[in-house]
Write a structure and sequence with these properties.
Elements lengths: L2 E5 L1 H4 L23 E6 L6 H17 L4 H16 L5 E7 L2 E10 L5 E8 L2
Length: about 120
């Protein structure tokens, strides 16, 4: 199942307190302000595991100053999930304009409980 969402700038573009339009060139201000094509899928494709690991590593380094060892922390369990996830587990990959920008997974922690993993949305 795929979900496609389209937003138009004219519908969502907020004004700043001084009445001017926000700076749309700033990556952090883009949020829902620009037209975008968003697709959410739950199938893993070649390159997804590596790219999600990369994205986690880069964003956590920028936001929290974490080093390369965090990528190994993400890569091991994510690779194991790719090899052997069950029907009770699922990953969702978020793409914007054909590029991966986020993810979320639910995995079995025990036979009775689940755990959210790899929750990430690129700003």
């Amino acid at each position: 199942m795929e979900v496609i969402v389209e937003k138009r700038a004219a519908e969502t573009r907020p004004e700043s307190p001084d009445g001017n339009l926000p700076d749309l060139e700033s990556p952090r201000s883009r949020g829902g302000n620009l037209p975008m094509n968003v697709r959410i899928r739950h199938d893993l494709k070649p390159g997804d595991v590596g790219y999600l690991t990369y994205l986690h590593g880069v964003l956590y380094a920028e936001e929290y100053g974490w080093d390369h060892t965090f990528e190994a922390y993400v890569a091991g369990p994510l690779a194991e999930f790719a090899r052997s996830h069950t029907g009770r587990e699922r990953i969702w990959i978020v793409e914007r304009d054909g590029k991966i920008v986020g993810s979320l997974a639910i995995v079995a922690a025990t036979s009775e409980t689940a755990q959210l993993r790899w929750l990430l949305l690129h700003p």
